Amino acid sequence: MKNKSTLLALILAAAASTNSVWADEKPFSIAIHGGAGTITKAKLTPQQQQAYRDKLTEAVNAGYKVLEKGGDSVVAIQAAINVMENSPLFNAGVGAVYTYDGAHEMDASIMDGKTMNAGAVSGVKHIKNPINLADAVMNQSPHVMLSGAGAEEFALTQGFTLVPANHFDTESRYKQLQDAKVKLRKAESELKAKSPDYQASLNGVPQIDYLDLDYKFGTVGAVALDKKGNLAAGTSTGGMTAKRFGRIGDSPVIGAGTYAENGVCAVSATGHGEYFIRYHVAGDICAKVKYQQKSIIQAADEVINQRLITAGGTGGVIAIDQRGNIATPFNTEGMYRATRKNGEPADVMIWRGR
Amino acid sequence: MKNKSTLLALILAAAASTNSVWADEKPFSIAIHGGAGTITKAKLTPQQQQAYRDKLTEAVNAGYKVLEKGGDSVVAIQAAINVMENSPLFNAGVGAVYTYDGAHEMDASIMDGKTMNAGAVSGVKHIKNPINLADAVMNQSPHVMLSGAGAEEFALTQGFTLVPANHFDTESRYKQLQDAKVKLRKAESELKAKSPDYQASLNGVPQIDYLDLDYKFGTVGAVALDKKGNLAAGTSTGGMTAKRFGRIGDSPVIGAGTYAENGVCAVSATGHGEYFIRYHVAGDICAKVKYQQKSIIQAADEVINQRLITAGGTGGVIAIDQRGNIATPFNTEGMYRATRKNGEPADVMIWRGR
């Protein structure tokens, strides 16, 4: 009898708890990433690890708070991304990497799954929070994608304050640029020695493909499902260290680095952007969910851990579906990331085993 | 008896003819477009109609010739696109429209279905044939997408000769810009009169959405299947008349304006680019073919004539599948286009009824 009544009490308690989360409130959740790469445990001191975990927690909670109050997913993802853009730990906003010529050229995009509206900026140099400018492009212009000085002219019409380029100067990123240039020169010399013809055809084009993976990563992003059932995705980046020629990566490309469609899924990517554009990764994951009825876990896994690996593309994504399920696959050693579902604490991870 | 032997002779002749086309030679075909829009019959004089039909015939034949000789589909589509880029009839290359500030900013992209490699340029001002620069980005750089002055710096490293900006000046396009500006000012005044708040929020941003459709169109593109079974797609454009703020349309966006994947399909789009980016049109058509086993005709029709119409997006695509089947749906009054399959003459069309 005692056992039976205990069981009953447990069942009632479970039902009450389920009720408070699932019946009174619609599910909502958020996932964020701060870049994927060859993040080995040996590379990070315990202090650095903690700094990343703290900032990821702060970012995911900033977005979660918006969702909890009933706010829109497009607002929540910006709140989360802003925290990372304002931290030098990530390759976005203040921590943006240097271009070959010693500048900072940032890309960002955002998509609202409810309206299928989207906004993107590429190559902006004086915008503190590029994700917010992408949002202004989405809501205040008839365009989806604005670039370079033109995007900053648009920013001025929208009341944005431009910041000086040195706002984005950090010593660690500057050192990365110097390291990258040394490696690029070495790679070029080796190529030249091996094959003068090949070198002639390259004609001084830096082969960033020969750089370590870590020079390509650090992009930040967020995806969220709000209580109204609306999905959103956003991505912000400084791009590749030592990039040249006005290179645009996947982050501002809708369907590649960012995609959101209500009823299907929302995705934000980080990795070797050229592969994410060619395999239109964000759009392909959602197409598998939509047309093949695959789960978000399976769809994201197939693209990141099968298709991209076969192609040689490294990186990862965060993805969320209409029920708030989250997938965070990556084919690199680590990916800075955090998730938080309604009523649960934040889950912060760097490696496969947390 | 006589009937029987006649029948036999017919069967043998048919077999011989089928044999020469289908057994000795692999199927190959090409499709091109020169833009979609409100092309009413009243708008074109018989002479203008003929000029378009002649140039489309020249372009499709230029590509066909490459395929017939066993050349690569990526070469064939460039041959076809170059003809249109070198004609003032189309909004690409020499006929590129004017930006709001009186410049020409051209976008182009190309994708090789065999390697899934891709190249794109945006906002170039001094490149005679932007599709060829996109090809150089694909083959001679580690990047997929280069923009603005950086893309032209890359062009110089590859031996391209820059042409002066006035190479792209044409009187008819200049008149279009003046017309567009008058209409934009009128639309802005009307908005201001209706709602001062709304105008304040726009803060002088020209609402190109209020322009006639024809200011948005004229992009050129080509898709092809070569004898080796390789698919390719390419797109080249001057963008929208009176565009501002470094606006990038769908043409240089892989997965939106251009996409090619062997075994699946190749697509080039033309239309109101913002919608083609948001609905990642080229990638979505191929996803329907790949994941839902839909025919190229059905997949392209569903996206252009159902999904885009519901969304309010106008334009069209040319699409080709692995067997050389071609679809050319558009939801506007007309789309300049031509197709040619192996052993057949060119088929040149402007409206639904040719």
From TrEMBL, chains A, B:
InterPro entries on file: Ntn_hydrolases_N (IPR029055), Peptidase_T2 (IPR000246)
UniProt GO MF annotations: hydrolase activity, acting on carbon-nitrogen (but not peptide) bonds, in linear amides; peptidase activity
Site (Cleavage): G218, T219
Key words, A-Z: Autocatalytic cleavage, Hydrolase, Protease, Signal
Residue ranges crossing the lipid bilayer per the database entry: none
GO biological process assignments: proteolysis
Protein name as it appears in the record: Isoaspartyl peptidase
Source species: Shewanella canadensis
